[in-house]
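Quiz preparation item.
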């Protein structure tokens, strides 16, 4: 790969790529510091700010070609190049391949021009299929960090419309890992990913782990499944417990703070959004709404009590109209929460949209009526 490529005719982020071949070769150096430096320089040149260049595709093929070399299992201690904690070089290379696949698929998944040269983008797309072939077996790697990186990379590769037909193979491998793994975060990440690909996760709704059950319930394909909705509502009845599920160290993630795949923000907020979409009445949501009230503030209104207000008042409230018992109960819980009423300009639009005054005392007065 190195010798058969005319690097002088290619370019990276800083111009002609004549000096690029040295970096991939140094990835297999016996010195971990040299490996780290090579990875840094390679990323800065052929994947600078996730942009693609004519040198990116051959560099990616080389990385894919050496991925199984035992020298890529070198663990780099607290090297910020690889991560903020010890990580095998192989995991970093998997992440690199995933980022290249993600950049290559950008125009295909967004209908936008990512700013990359089309020839370079097309070249990067041609290496995605063989790259995926190399990455898939690492879903069952012995090292938890490698499995985690492989899962992220596979998800990136399968964004491409040309590769979506390969989700079945990936799902079979992940289902095997799901049955064997004892790591909560890993198992939750698997069911979230399988569900995101459109595969059913019905069997995981009865998993012994409530965290895995809740993640399985988020699967879009189960939107009409009453059992999935019940699993979510059961979990949301204790939102602080949901927060605790992934707050401690695990074998795959000893450093707290890594997000779950396909989840933006807190898991409890993702579950709440899905539950609001799936229930048929606010009365079903009332236990969830009252459980969330002690956690609400003026800064969380977009994530929790704002959407719950909208669910409580599907039709705009008009002056003089009576509140339903569920509406009365929920508003009563909110007026007792001091931090919800600070800086009312942050909450005004949510109240106005449902026909309520964005003023605590005005809401108290409303609650004192019929």
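Solution:
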């Amino acid at each position: 790969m190195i010798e058969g490529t005319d690097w002088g005719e290619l370019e990276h982020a800083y111009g002609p790529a004549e000096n690029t071949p040295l970096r991939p070769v140094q990835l297999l150096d016996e010195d971990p510091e040299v490996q780290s430096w090579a990875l840094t320089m390679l990323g800065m040149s052929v994947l600078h700010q996730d942009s693609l260049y004519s040198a990116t595709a051959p560099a990616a093929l080389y990385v894919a070609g050496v991925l199984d070399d035992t020298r890529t299992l070198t663990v780099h201690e607290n090297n910020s190049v690889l991560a903020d904690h010890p990580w095998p070089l192989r995991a970093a290379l998997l992440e690199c391949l995933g980022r290249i696949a993600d950049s290559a698929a950008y125009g295909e998944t967004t209908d936008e021009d990512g700013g990359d040269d089309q020839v370079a983008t097309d070249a990067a797309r041609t290496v995605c299929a063989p790259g995926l072939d190399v990455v898939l077996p690492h879903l069952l790697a012995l090292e938890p960090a490698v499995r985690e990186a492989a899962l992220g990379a596979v998800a990136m590769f399968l964004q491409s419309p040309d590769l979506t037909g390969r989700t079945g193979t990936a799902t079979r491998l992940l289902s095997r890992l799901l049955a064997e793994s004892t790591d909560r975060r890993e198992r939750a990440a698997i069911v979230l990913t399988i569900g995101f690909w459109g595969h059913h996760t019905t069997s995981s709704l009865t998993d012994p782990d409530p965290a895995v059950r809740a993640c399985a319930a988020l699967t879009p394909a189960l939107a009409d499944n009453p059992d999935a909705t019940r699993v979510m509502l059961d979990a949301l009845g204790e939102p602080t417990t949901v927060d605790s599920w992934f707050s401690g160290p695990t074998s795959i993630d000893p450093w707290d703070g890594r997000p779950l795949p396909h989840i933006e923000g807190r898991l409890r907020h993702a579950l709440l959004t899905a539950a609001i979409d799936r229930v048929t009445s606010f009365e079903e949501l009332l236990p969830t709404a009252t459980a969330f009230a002690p956690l609400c503030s003026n800064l969380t209104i977009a994530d929790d009590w704002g959407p719950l207000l909208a669910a409580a008042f599907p039709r705009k409230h008009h002056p003089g109209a009576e509140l339903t018992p569920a509406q009365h109960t929920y508003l009563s819980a909110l007026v007792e929460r001091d931090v919800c009423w600070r800086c009312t300009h942050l909450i005004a639009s949510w109240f106005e949209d449902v026909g309520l005054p964005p003023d605590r005392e005005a809401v108290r007065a409303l609650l004192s009526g019929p």
